[in-house]
Amino acid sequence: MLIRPLPSAVQPNPSPPSQPQGALGNRGAWPSPSGRGQCKCRLNRSDCKYALQASRALAVRTEPAVQAFKPTLGADVVPTSLALSNGVGLEAVAQSPVAGGELVLSDTDDVVPESGVLCDEALRNLDEYRRVEAYSATVSSSAHISSGFAYSTAQRNQIRESWDALMRWSKVFRTRKLAGSPLEVAKKIVVFGGGSFGTAMGCALARQKSDLEVVLLVRDPYLCKDINTLHENTRYLKGFQMPPNVRATTLAAEAIAGAQYAVHAVPVQSSRAFLQGIKEYLSPSVPIICVSKGLEVGSGQMMSELIPSALERKQPAVFLSGPSFAREVMQNRPTGVVAACKDGKLAKTVQGLFASPTMRVNMTTDVVGVEICGALKNVLAIAAGIVQGMDLGNNALAALVAQGCSEIRWLSEKMGAKPTTMSGLSGLGDIMLTCYGDLSRNRSVGIRLGRGEKLEDIIASSSQVAEGVATAAVVVGLARKYRVSLPVLTAVAQVLDNNLTAHEAVFHIMNLPQIEEA
Ligand SMILES: NC(=O)C1=CN([C@@H]2O[C@H](COP(=O)(O)OP(=O)(O)OC[C@H]3O[C@@H](n4cnc5c(N)ncnc54)[C@H](O)[C@@H]3O)[C@@H](O)[C@H]2O)C=CC1
Ligand SMILES: O=C(CO)COP(=O)(O)O
């Protein structure tokens, strides 16, 4: 059972002291580490409330999973068998004057693989809810005394009412039926490219439904064998166990046959050749969910132009972008992305495939905006890395990122993007992640350039793609085409092309004419 993390508004600050493990007491024994089975814990009245929140979080998972966990409360309280999918039974118990008893979560029919692990997670979350509740109670009773600060009663009521309104709105969405949803009808999905992100997104899909077949189409037979025998991508995501319903193949025809969707995670510069190679196996009706971010050298095309051009036909396609490091997706950590498609219905379908308690999926029709932001943030991340590699300080970094945001907005708007896209997940969200996040490959390239390393050495020592390197030159071409001046992004291309050192680039950028903000 996955429970959403506590909303930040109720996160205590500073953190409550952690309790020793096992605070829950009456836990049942786990059947095995791979874990199918059952767990037990004692509940008091407020635990029922938390268990209810937990059950609602679970309700957005697949139907078989929801039905598999059959909670029952001890006969000493309310002898009921509860439907966890809607939490109604738990709600009744939470309101009962004698609420409490023993909660047994069980997957007696062995429907959900690793159900023991999920049960364990549910109990840990209950622990956490209890701990935070206890801490909040202490803090609120001592707020006046300890810090001399407290909201007024009117403010507190307002906050509570606003929060409750949000929760009611949210409940309406969560109680919607899953029957007939894209996820329910999906049987097989193929992923083009078994690198870091293809693997991570394939695993995210596979976690949604245990009987969904996810097939990674890879080139390397050794990697293929590792994925199928060890359930691990030993090359790109070492140490992460993949769900059992993900497999790999090197055979395009076999990978694609019967797939209802194709996730495209091949680097942009290899995408044309790749798509031409698989064209004959891919039905023109199968939607491509493209996660690659960049612009093609030579044609200057975005992926939304490259796909139909390479396939020489129209193909339904959705562009999924946003701040989403592969490793964190693999770890099932909370992530937000945006699905862009002119066809709103198809964007909604993709939202339905990926949305989960750990993945939010916004929708937009602004394909150009999402694609340009996704491609250009990689170039900006190289610039941010350069500034960090040169140790120029936080002021410099913030000024650079702000300038880069303006440049991306100038170009994307000239190309017809919506201004709001820039402030969304694919714009600011991904810019913040890649310019400041340690896991960014593009930022790492920049850091090494800023420290004085040569580009060829950096590329030779890296086994993964940093799309910004190739995209930088294309951006300069687009800027010329749309008659817009992009100082920072152009300087990155100059440094990459070895015409300017990082120090010279910074000197020249700082000495550009002082201008009005635009
Ligand atoms: N890694 C990440 O955190 C994220 C990556 N992306 C984007 O996803 C795309 C893929 O990135 P990663 O998976 O990280 O790259 P990667 O470098 O980890 O893996 C690339 C994969 O593509 C395959 N490949 C390369 N050329 C190929 C060809 N000609 N034919 C078939 N397969 C080929 C490689 O064998 C490898 O499996 C990039 O456009 C990247 O910007 C997007 C969001 C996050
Ligand atoms: O696009 C990404 C995260 O959203 C990944 O960025 P890097 O390619 O710089 O690692």
Please give a structural write-up.
With 518 residues, this protein is α/β, with parallel strands linked by helices. It has 22 helices and eleven strands. It has three domains: 8-174, no CATH class; 182-365, NAD(P)-binding Rossmann-like Domain (Rossmann fold); 373-510, N-(1-d-carboxylethyl)-l-norvaline Dehydrogenase, domain 2 (Orthogonal Bundle). Strands 6-5-4-7-8-9-10-11 form an eight-stranded mixed beta sheet, with helices on both faces. Helix 1 crosses helix 4 (115-147) and helix 14 runs parallel beside helix 18. The longest helix is centred in the N-terminal third of the chain and has 33 residues, at 115-147. The structure holds 1,4-dihydronicotinamide adenine dinucleotide and 1,3-dihydroxyacetonephosphate. Residues 193-198, 218-219, 236, 265-268, 270, 273-274, 291-294, 324-326, 464-465, 467 line the site of 1,4-dihydronicotinamide adenine dinucleotide. Belongs to the NAD-dependent glycerol-3-phosphate dehydrogenase family. Its main location: other. Residues 366-506 form the Glycerol-3-phosphate dehydrogenase NAD-dependent C-terminal domain.
